[in-house]
Write a structure and sequence with these properties.
Blueprint (H helix, E strand, L loop, with lengths): L5 H7 L5 H12 L5 E5 L4 H9 L20 E6 L4 H5 L3 H21 L3 E3 L19 E4 L1
Antiparallel strand pairs: 1-2, 2-4, 3-4
Helix pairs in contact: 2-5
């Protein structure tokens, strides 16, 4: 049975929008795959570092605290995952993020929450029509 580890639980409780938490927990409840919560709330300083390193394209991230006092974004990783293979373009490893995205989209639909996945920013089902591919990223719209 898949469940969140202590670090993931800690991150879920770290100022992440409660609607996103519900979606993530629902996705895990399907018991299709194991995954972990890697990042939720970011400081402006961390966002700047990621921006300067080219790991994000914006300083206006939903990982930052929003006006309601919560982060509206989360980075999730299938577990286990070979990120070196992902970075080299391994379709097998990248496809694991697609499975996770499907679980998250279904969970969001069931919870009545609109989300966006960083692997398909415009939600058209095409992952290759974007200049920035951020497979771990999910955000509330």
């Amino acid at each position: 049975m898949y469940s969140f580890g202590d670090k993931s639980e800690e991150r879920l409780n770290d100022k992440l929008d409660p609607a996103m938490v519900r979606v993530i927990r629902k996705a895990m409840s399907y018991q299709i795959m194991d995954f972990s919560v890697r990042e939720t709330l970011r400081t402006a300083e961390r966002q700047k570092i990621l921006f300067d390193d080219g790991k994000t394209t914006t300083m206006n991230s939903k990982h930052l605290m929003q006006s309601d006092g919560y982060s509206h974004a989360v980075d999730l990783y299938p577990s286990p995952i070979d990120m070196e293979a992902v970075n080299k373009g391994s379709a097998k490893e990248i496809s694991r993020f697609g499975v996770l995205a499907g679980l998250m989209k279904r969970a969001a639909q069931e919870e009545g929450v609109t989300i966006k996945w960083g692997g398909d920013w415009d939600s058209d089902g095409q992952t290759l029509d974007h200049t920035f591919f951020d497979a771990p990223h999910f955000e509330r719209v």
